[in-house]
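ingest -> validate -> predict -> emit
validate: passed (alphabet ok, no gaps, 143 aa)
predict: started
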Amino acid sequence: MAALIWLVAGVLLAAAEVLTGDFFLLMLAGGALSAAGVSAVTDFPVWGDAIVFAVVSIGLLVLVRPMLLRRFANPPALPTGIDALEGKQALVLEEVGMHEGQVKLDGEVWTARPLDATEVYPPGSTVTVMEIDGATAVVWRGP
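emit:
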């Protein structure tokens, strides 16, 4: 009889996991199903089955759940729009100085200024976009 109760508890916990998606209830369901199996095979008292449930559940929570969370974690959001332009390479079309300049970035012509106001980048050089400030690409040639 105890095996049937553990089996029902395991199935209900696994079904409840569908609603949460946190892998916590699934680990408890594994413990309950293990207790059901041990209860069906042995003559342990109910407290013995509870110890099996606790040990297996804690083992699953500590060892298996972190791996599942890493495996099914949401991937980082991909930057879009102007956020995706930061870090890209650009070709200097017109000399880039503090108050003027143009670069070709992803096939489009952008006004540009250097990250360090004292620097000037000649046409034909390659620069890295550090940020987008309004409609101006802030660029740096780097070391």
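Residues 14 and 26 are 5 Å apart (CA to CA).
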